[in-house]
Every structure is written in structure tokens, then in C-alpha cells.
Write a structure and sequence with these properties.
The chain has 247 residues and is α+β, with helices and mostly antiparallel strands. The protein is 46% helix and 26% strand.
Length: 247
């Protein structure tokens, strides 16, 4: 798929912008809070918390901020909030599949905001299960090759437990079982590799290339969903041209 970019790549690039950092930190603090409420404050015993803390570190979130979110989730601040994980599924321009995962204490408010984003940008919000079957839940690790041979990184990843490996434009994408992503990432770090990202994520079983005005509108839909305070992650099977991704 030369000349095209997946939404997961585009998100990482756009998240590097300073004006997005505050928004990312707010979402991460909420994720840490919910993880602690669900399974306790120990990252050794709480996989969801460990993933959230790992991502917070990568994004440059301060240790004090992380600790405050953990303390808040552990009862240091009794705010009475009851966050729930809710999945919203629908179709965007060009018939691309879109899934948004939210953490919300007000399902009605969040549903209205998500529906409005779909309606404003040429999409349609569907029922639960509308597009979820088109995505697989996996562990995904991104390694920056730098001066190292991508083929050698691929071999190291397979030895560490990867189920699939691919490389493109200096990035090596490593697929693992969802439960194994942290262990594989730590093994790769231990041998000196530059692990840029390591998360449990959802990947489309098939990519759909869209071009022109449809691609531009679909990108606006995805960005509108990402900008909602309650939405933690957005997934799609859309693949964009490099020109659209850079816009």
C-alpha cells in the first residue's frame, strides 16, 4: 500500500503536536483512574494500569501527575464519579468502518456528542456490533529502526515472542498476543531497541483506501471523535494518501 498511511500512524504523528499534549494527558489520567478503580493500584497486578502508565511515560506525562491519578483512583479523592467503558461503532465517508472507545460517567452526553460528530462529517452511528467484527484485538509494538537493520529487529522480535512483524519507512511494527505485549516490549528494550509504542489495540482485518473529498471528510470525522473529551481511542479501516494524512 505504497503512498498510503494507516490511521494508527497518522495519530502518532499528530499527537506529537504540543497543542495536543494537554488533551492526551487528560485522557491518560482518566484511564489510570479507571484502571485503579477496577483492579487496584499495583501495576504488577493490574495489566490495564501497567499499559496506561507505560503510555503516560512515553507521552512525557510527569511522575507526579501519574501518582495523583493513581491516588485519586485509589480513593484519595472521593469525587463519586462512575466511569464506564462504552464502544461506539459506525460508518464514515466511503463506507469505512469506525470504532470509538469512550470512558464516560454520562452515557447520554457522550452518545449525543459522538452521534453529532458522525452526522457532521458524513458518517452514520450504528448499533453495537455494527463494525466491531471487522477488527482484531492484538498487542502492537512499534520500534524505530534508526541505524539498525530492520531484518535483524524482526528476528529479535520473533525470538521474543512476536506473532507477526513488518517494516516500512524505518519503523518495525511487531504484533503479539494482547496479553504478551508488555513482556515482548521489555525484552526488546533490554537488547537496546528503541520502542516507540507498545499497546493493546484493535487493527482492521482489511484496509479500505479512500481518496479525494471523501478521504478529507473521513479524516475530519476521526479527528472530531479524537477531540471529544470522553473518547479514549478511535479505530478505522480507512487508509489515506500521504497528501491527506499530511493536511
Amino acid at each position: 500500500m505504497a503512498g498510503h498511511s494507516k490511521w494508527s500512524q497518522i495519530k502518532r504523528q499528530k499527537a506529537a503536536n504540543d497543542h495536543k499534549k494537554g488533551q492526551i494527558f487528560s485522557k491518560l489520567a482518566r484511564e489510570i483512574y479507571v484502571a485503579v478503580r477496577e483492579s487496584g493500584p499495583s501495576p504488577d497486578l493490574n495489566v490495564r494500569l501497567r499499559f496506561a502508565m507505560e503510555r503516560a511515560k512515553r507521552e512525557g506525562m510527569s511522575g507526579d501527575t501519574v501518582e495523583r491519578a493513581i491516588a485519586k483512583g485509589n480513593g484519595a479523592s472521593a469525587d463519586g464519579l462512575d466511569y464506564q467503558t462504552v464502544f461506539y461503532e459506525g460508518y464514515g465517508p466511503g463506507g469505512v468502518a469506525v470504532m470509538a472507545v469512550a470512558l464516560t460517567e454520562n452515557r447520554n452526553r457522550t452518545a449525543a456528542e459522538v452521534r453529532q460528530a458522525f452526522n457532521r462529517h458524513g458518517g452514520a452511528l450504528g448499533e453495537t456490533g455494527t463494525v466491531g467484527w471487522q477488527f482484531d484485538t492484538i498487542g502492537q509494538i512499534v520500534v524505530i529502526a534508526g541505524n539498525q537493520d530492520p531484518d535483524e529487529i524482526e528476528l529479535q522480535a520473533i525470538e521474543a515472542g512476536a506473532t507477526d512483524v513488518s517494516s516500512e519507512d524505518g519503523e518495525v511494527t511487531i504484533i503479539t498476543e494482547a496479553a504478551e505485549v508488555n513482556a515482548v516490549a521489555e525484552t526488546l528494550r533490554a537488547v537496546g531497541l528503541d520502542v516507540e509504542a507498545a499497546d493493546v489495540t484493535r487493527v482492521p482485518q482489511n484496509q479500505v483506501e479512500i481518496e479525494g473529498s471523501q478521504a478529507q471528510t473521513a479524516m475530519k470525522l476521526l479527528e472530531a471523535l479524537e477531540d471529544l473529551e470522553d473518547v479514549q481511542e478511535v479505530y478505522t479501516n480507512a487508509s489515506f494518501s500521504e497528501e491527506t494524512a499530511a493536511a
